[in-house]
Structure formats: structure tokens, C-alpha cells
Design goal:
The chain is of the alpha/beta class. It has 2 domains: 100 residues, Formyl transferase, N-terminal domain (Rossmann fold, 3-Layer(aba) Sandwich); 104 residues, Rossmann fold (3-Layer(aba) Sandwich), CATH 3.40.50. The chain is built from 6 helices and 9 strands; from the N terminus they run E-H-E-H-E-H-E-H-E-H-E-E-H-E-E. Helix 4 links the parallel strand 4 and strand 5. The longest helix is centred in the C-terminal third of the chain and has 24 residues. Bound molecules: 5-O-phosphono-beta-D-ribofuranosylamine.
């Protein structure tokens, strides 16, 4: 499976996927890391691991349509099977989303469908939520509305601020994203009527956590 990863910043989730592929026990490789930010540290992580990189700076485009078309071209040239958004901070056009239907996924640092959009750790704290977490989901034309593939849950602790909660969530993101990529590489992610079914899923109906808050 050929993977393209889109980053705008640090790329720690990219690193988690790089580490997964480097372990060599899955049939997947990252063939392109694409960024809209020339200084994104994720590009350096890719170079350090001999992965091809490309910068497509949105500032060089008048609007989203030609920018997204340039990204489509780069990803098609690299013949990607799966596109992973990993801290990619641009909204995507329907043209881009529809081009990659069923093979475009994102990680969001909250338990969707709660808290879509931005500043989601603060949103969780302000709402008094006892738990938050991370969600891997298919990308559709909406804002964080695509079918949910996998989630990780963390507690929201008393005294948390957005930064401490974000750090706790990010740690789990680094477990969750590789897990989801592995499921794709094993062809175990099925999208049926807008919902995801995982083939040969290990389920535990006793896996309940109750907070003390
Ligand atoms: C992560 O929290 C991700 O969920 C969000 O942006 C952050 C990216 O972090 N979309 P990194 O660039 O992978 O370190």
C-alpha cells in the first residue's frame, strides 16, 4: 500500500506512521510527504527517513481550487492508495475530497462527533467532559463529519488546560494512527452506507471506563 501523508507542522503523527512502516511487518510504505508550509518540521522527518517530499505552498495560489488540483496531481503521480492527513491545516475542496473518496483519512484530537473544528481541547474542557480523545475518520465534504474508523479515549483531569489535555491526547494519537494504517494495509476497513465496519475486529463489551469526576 502506497501512502501519501499531508502535514503542516511538527509531524509527530507522521513520525508514528514512519516508525510503523520501518518495522517492516506491514505491506505499506510512505511514498510522499506533502506540505503547504515550507518550514514544516514534518518535511525534515521525511528527509531523515529518505522519503520523497514536496512543498505546495497555498500562498502561491489565488484560491483553493488550483492549490488542491496541484496536490491531487502530486499524489496521483506518486500513485498513492491512501492519503493520511496528519496535522494538515487547510480545508480541502470537494474536488480533492471526491477524488480520494474512501482513501482519505484524518486524525482529529477529540471524540467525534463531539467537538469538531478548532480549539477542540478547550471545547472539551469548557463543556466539562470527563473524557476526550482522538478520532481517525474518513474525510468527506463536511467539517470533521466523515465516517469514524477508530477512536482512543483519555480522561480529562481536573486542573487540565488545553495544553495538558492536548499532550495526553497526542500520546494516544501516536498509537491510534499506526493502528488505523495497519487496518487499511490489511484491507480490513470497509465503508458501508456511510459507516465503517472492521473485518475480524476484536471486540470487548466489558471495556468500560467510568470517571470519578
Ligand atoms: C494533532 O493533534 C492532530 O490531531 C491535529 O493536529 C495535531 C498534529 O500534530 N490534527 P503533529 O503535526 O502530528 O505533531
Amino acid at each position: 500500500m502506497r501512502i501519501g501523508v499531508l502535514v503542516s507542522g511538527s509531524g509527530s503523527n507522521l513520525q508514528a506512521i514512519i516508525d510503523l512502516c520501518k518495522r517492516g511487518d506491514i505491506a505499506a510504505e510512505i511514498v510522499l510527504v506533502l506540505s503547504n508550509v515550507p518550514t514544516a518540521y514534518g518535511l525534515q522527518r521525511a528527509k531523515d527517513n529518505a522519503i520523497a517530499t514536496k512543498v505546495i505552498d497555498h500562498k502561491n495560489y489565488d484560491n483553493r481550487e488550483p492549490f488542491d488540483k496541484a496536490m491531487i496531481e502530486a499524489l496521483d503521480d506518486a500513485r498513492v492508495d491512501l492519503v493520511c492527513l496528519a496535522g494538515f491545516m487547510r480545508l480541502l475542496t470537494p474536488t480533492f475530497v471526491n477524488h480520494f473518496t474512501g482513501r482519505l483519512i484524518n486524525i482529529h484530537p477529540a471524540l467525534l462527533p463531539s467537538f469538531p473544528g478548532l480549539h477542540v481541547q478547550q471545547q472539551a474542557i469548557d463543556a466539562g467532559a470527563c473524557f476526550s480523545g482522538a478520532t481517525i475518520h474518513f474525510v468527506d465534504e463536511g467539517m470533521d463529519t466523515g465516517a469514524i474508523i477508530a477512536q482512543a479515549v483519555v480522561p480529562v483531569l481536573q486542573g487540565d488546560d488545553a495544553d495538558t489535555l492536548a499532550a495526553r491526547i497526542l500520546k494516544q494519537e501516536h498509537r491510534l494512527y499506526p493502528m488505523a494504517v495497519r487496518l487499511f494495509s490489511e484491507n480490513r476497513v470497509l465503508l458501508k452506507n456511510g459507516r465503517v465496519e472492521i473485518v475480524n475486529c476484536i471486540q470487548d463489551d466489558a471495556a468500560v471506563i467510568i470517571s470519578h469526576k
